[in-house]
Give the backbone structure.
Amino acid sequence: MTGRRAEDGAAIAAASARRPWGRDDIGAAFEQQYRGYEEMALRVWAGVGRRLAELGSDVVRSVEANLETDAANASRLNRVAETGPER
């Protein structure tokens, strides 16, 4: 997501910097409305990429914690199985 934002977002910004809609009154009116939306969309796109990267790290930590918990519980269950029921 972040890579696509960097590449595609830069292409969008570069294309709009050339003002393909023209520089007449209509083009200026379009520019005034468009620029804010473009900036917001590119900023949000970058933010989504950052959040997804953070989420990926959180998922890795969660999986590691679950694996550690499973291993600890398996060890406890093995000790119980080895000692057998108390009489």
